[in-house]
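My main concern about presentation is that the manuscript never shows what a single data entry looks like. Each protein is reduced to its one-letter sequence and a matching series of backbone shape codes. For the editor and my fellow referees, an illustration may be useful. For illustration, here is how one protein appears when written out as sequence plus structure tokens:
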Amino acid sequence: MDDSSSFDVVAAEPLDDIMQKIAEHKGCGTSSDGGKASCGSSDGPDDMAPEIWEKVKNHPCYSEEAHHHYARMHVAVAPACNIQCNYCNRKYDCANESRPGVVSEKLTPEQASKKVLAVASTIPQMTVLGIAGPGDPLANPAKTFKTFELISQTAPDIKLCLSTNGLALPDHVDTIAKYNVDHVTITINMVDPEVGAQIYPWIFWNHKRVEGIEAARILTERQMKGLEMLTERGILCKVNSVMIPGINDKHLVEVNKAVKSRGAFLHNIMPLISAPEHGTVFGLNGQRGPSAQELKALQDACEGEMNMMRHCRQCRADAVGLLGEDRSAEFTTDKIMEMEVSYDLESRQAYQNAVEQERLAKVAAKKAEMETLAQEDASDLKILVAVATKGSGRINEHFGHANEFQVYELSSSEGAKFVGHRRVDLYCQGGYGEEDALETVIRAINDCTAVFVAKIGHCPKDTLSAAGIEPIDQYAYEFIEQSAIAYFKDYLARVKSGEIVHVARGDADIRQGAFIEA
């Protein structure tokens, strides 16, 4: 983060030093009134072709703006996979963890179709159905395309997506187009086979196992060919890349250039998840994931003409709900088979129209606040702030109930820009604050100057302040971006007057394995 400015700047303290200083706050309880928590692009219709806007405006993965309002679901109909990745272990499943490739139950296409209708009838803002595993959808083409066929017949308003490693992609592009699957995600971690050989021990290709550099060479050639074939047909492509420090972190800049030149719409660089308990090769050999600032620096370096996705939650292959939440437990196979499902397209559309009005109000509020910021003295100073939210683009979550904080970068040039999210352990448990959890929260948002919440108890407020993070509850239930810009104007004024000194913040932790519920 660029902290250069015309103001005096104080260097950041190491994170461990800060944690040591606040340790004296351990042991204090709190009342339960503390409360229970650029996809890509946030561009609007004025910034892209109308046909592209129609594809992304209510797609929570392809639009950062939409992910505040619209939900998605994955159905686990594709168990087999044709490659082995050193960061993947599909055998491990914990209901409280969210990682790609993890599911609690596998479905037939018929079960998946009924589940989609049940979810869409219950969650009217659910607009997207994706198939992302638990293996590779195109290693299971019959089940994948049968599912798409059934859903397109009964729920034609739902967008269809798939996520693939790309090995079999060139063989299925025509079928993908036939079923109007117009959003495809390809996981591409390298374009150099020598790098790839450190990530993929083998692929299954032409009825045999291929290993090492030869396997990686075949994989990258098939991925690039498939990407070109999709973009030639006007199918939107998102590229996922896993950032693995010391292996492909610097190389991902080259990957970004390669996929951009082939027409990819969006690049999503995600942190490696490598906790030992997941049993992956990287987890067991001690390969670390990136820190929050390492990830942000790489995303910033790759940001240019191509949109960067920063709101990915690395979802399970059976996730349901808004990004950052998972309601899959409400829709198990046993429950959906007992449900009387009535798919009311008219009611869904009416609900989504109401969501759109809320969204337009949010955009207008941000624009109005941004105009007032432009009238202030320009500054090069940038800060990060964390926000507790339950969705709809509002500051509407209590600090103690947040299991995730969204992070915005504030600047005079761009106002409030979404740059990521941080998973945390729940602070408020059983009506009392859990001090060990509070430490994880501070580690997760240590690079932030302030945290915006709907409500917060006295004890965590004091502890956050001691760590140099300003707790802000004066904008409760207001729009996030409008409030953040208003805060930033006040912050700049306080720095300029000498009331406060701007402090360059340090780094922050990324939680290993995305926690999804208490």
In short: Residues 1-10, 18-42, 514-518 have pLDDT under 50 and may be disordered. The chain has two domains: 50-338, 374-497. The chain has 15 helices and 22 strands. Residues 184 and 237 are 5 Å apart (CA to CA).
